[in-house]
């Protein structure tokens, strides 16, 4: 059987992302008898694992700064284990497979969902059969790029229980904190067609769920074997099926495995939630529900194919507040063709929602063009220059105003300030800073000061001459930490 090394590349962030995407791949490979090692370069030095002796090395990367870490890892492997097959997968290679596979540090690209494809690739490599016979791949043959057709999406119940033991869990703040939690995927995909979302390419707008008994069994397994206080769903869209959510919540209560956990939903779902359903969620331990609101402008919401309205947001937030649950809402600014009036509508709606629920957690980020999305072509038509290489994509950040050439310099400065202001709680800065930084008094004091400034600027819509946030921006950019 083959020895497989899976690498989650380094990416400069305030805290490491949990490399969940590695675990299902490892699970199916192990089930077939392959030896699997996971190296998370966010929390491990590449030198901790010698790549020599591995037959296949898989590298997964998101679009953006993580690609720099992926290139570094691939170069490290190529230098020390030149005979190992270098396989790239994940979001970015799936969005740009032909461009990715042309790089000299890439032997083959796994597109989209990786379990079946990687398993077939490893088996073919082991037997010496042509990789072109494996579906789901993009590769070079005689200097020509070929795609091998799509691999059918997997039945999620086929994936074995995940080998969390392959991850050095003690190196992740969320697991060592109080309370501690672990991540878990109950479904994949989303049936909607938001114009900015890459899910349409990666999951083909198909939504699939594990069976509810399987979900409940796996939740119990994680709690019992990992010693964690809570399990956090990381689904693309957790609430597609209301009956499924009811079964999960009811099953947790029946099994006596209630813990605090968050979920995500959509406003066109939540507007129809009743007190009985929300009460069930609360009894099952759900603490808050997060949403993508995106814009307060009906014109923009229609243009980006979001399928919701501002009135849905108002009604949903009120229902959630009235039932004792917290609510978080993400917005975006800087969309192609967005006007000053559209942006005012977004900020005014946020004020309305905060008026309905004073504990609301709103945030604004900047629209980011992603390859293969519906709005990507709109961005190109308005002057966006495609990076065109892995090296260039490695300098591409999420929420960066420079990705939006249709904005003039004044608007870029304004939106950048608004995005930074929205990170800080301009409602209760003392409470939030003390909670987040209770053991770091200087940082708590700085956070409180920025929060007070944010509150003033938001209230007066005064985002010019924001010298304090300009200085913060310079620091964050120099650390390459502000990209999510």
What report would you give on this structure?
This protein is globular. The chain has 20 helices and 15 strands. The protein has 3 domains: 3-147, Rossmann fold (3-Layer(aba) Sandwich); 178-367, TIM Barrel (Alpha-Beta Barrel); 408-484, no CATH class. By secondary structure, the chain is α/β, with parallel strands linked by helices.
What would the keywords be for this entry?
15% strand; 484 residues; globular; seven-stranded mixed sheet; Rossmann fold; alpha/beta; TIM Barrel; 15 strands; four-stranded parallel sheet
Please give the domain count: 3
CATH class annotation of the largest domain: Alpha Beta
What's the oligomerization state? single chain
Mean pLDDT: 92
Helix content: 40-55%
Main beta sheet: strand number and arrangement? 7 strands, mixed
Principal-axis shape: globular
**Global Rg:** 23 Å
Unreliable segments of 5+ consecutive residues: 428-433
Percent strand: 15-25%
Structural category: alpha/beta
Give the CATH superfamily of the largest domain: Aldolase class I
Distance between the termini: 39 Å
Please, how many helices? 20
Instruction: Name the CATH architecture of the largest domain.
Output: Alpha-Beta Barrel
Q: Strands, helices and their partners?
A:
Blueprint lengths: L2 E6 L13 H10 L3 E6 L15 E5 L5 H15 L4 E5 L1 H5 L1 H5 L6 E3 L4 H13 L9 E5 L2 E4 L25 H4 L4 E4 L2 E2 L10 H4 L5 E2 L2 H15 L3 E4 L8 H14 L5 E4 L2 H4 L4 H9 L2 E9 L3 H6 L6 H13 L3 E8 L6 H17 L4 E6 L7 H8 L8 H4 L15 H15 L5 H8 L4 H20 L6 H13 L5
Parallel strand pairs: 1-2, 1-3, 3-4, 4-5, 8-11, 12-13, 13-14, 14-15
Antiparallel strand pairs: 5-6, 6-7, 9-10
Helix pairs in contact: 1-5, 8-9, 9-11, 13-14, 17-19, 18-19
């Amino acid at each position: 059987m083959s020895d497989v090394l899976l690498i989650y590349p380094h990416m400069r962030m305030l805290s490491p992302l949990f490399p969940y995407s590695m675990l299902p791949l490892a699970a199916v490979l192990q089930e077939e008898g392959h030896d699997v090692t996971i190296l998370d370069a966010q929390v491990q030095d590449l030198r901790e694992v010698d790549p020599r002796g591995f037959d296949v090395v898989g590298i997964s990367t998101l679009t953006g700064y993580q690609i720099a870490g992926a290139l570094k890892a691939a170069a490290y492997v190529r230098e020390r284990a030149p005979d190992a097959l270098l396989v790239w997968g994940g979001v970015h290679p799936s969005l740009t497979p032909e461009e990715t596979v042309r790089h000299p540090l890439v032997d083959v690209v796994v597109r989209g969902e990786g379990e079946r494809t990687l398993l077939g690739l490893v088996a073919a490599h082991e037997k010496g059969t042509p990789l072109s016979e494996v579906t789901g791949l993009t590769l070079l043959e005689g200097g020509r790029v070929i795609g091998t057709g799509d691999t059918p999406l997997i039945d999620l119940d086929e994936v074995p229980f995940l080998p969390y033991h392959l991850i050095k869990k003690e190196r992740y703040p969320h697991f060592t904190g109080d309370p501690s939690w672990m991540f878990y995927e109950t479904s994949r995909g989303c049936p909607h067609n938001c114009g900015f979302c890459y899910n349409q390419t990666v999951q083909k707008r198909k939504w699939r769920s594990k069976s509810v008994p399987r979900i409940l069994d796996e939740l119990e397994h994680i709690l019992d074997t990992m010693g964690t206080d809570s399990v956090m769903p990381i689904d693309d869209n957790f609430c597609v099926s209301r009956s499924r959510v009811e079964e999960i919540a009811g099953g947790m209560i029946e099994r006596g495995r209630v813990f605090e956990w968050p979920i995500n939903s959509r406003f066109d779902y939540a507007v129809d939630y009743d007190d009985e359903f929300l009460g069930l969620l609360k009894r099952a331990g759900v603490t808050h529900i997060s949403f993508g609101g995106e814009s307060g402008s009906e014109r923009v919401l229609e243009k980006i194919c979001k399928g919701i309205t501002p009135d849905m947001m108002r009604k949903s937030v009120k229902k959630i507040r009235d039932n004792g649950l917290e609510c978080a809402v993400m917005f975006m600014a800087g969309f192609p063709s967005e006007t000053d009036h559209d942006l005012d509508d977004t900020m005014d709606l946020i004020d309305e929602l905060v008026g309905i629920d004073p504990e609301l957690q709103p945030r604004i980020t900047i629209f980011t063009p992603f390859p293969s999305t519906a709005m990507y072509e709109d961005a190109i038509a308005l002057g966006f220059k495609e990076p065109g290489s892995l090296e260039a994509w490695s300098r591409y950040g999420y929420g960066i105003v420079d990705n939006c050439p249709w904005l003039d310099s004044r608007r870029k400065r304004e939106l950048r300030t608004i995005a930074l202001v929205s990170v800080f709680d301009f409602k209760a800065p003392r409470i939030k800073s003390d909670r987040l930084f209770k053991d770091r008094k200087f940082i708590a004091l700085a956070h409180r000061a920025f929060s007070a400034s944010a509150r003033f600027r938001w209230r007066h819509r005064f985002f010019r001459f924001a010298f304090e946030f300009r200085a913060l921006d310079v620091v964050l950019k120099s650390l390459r930490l502000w990209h999510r």
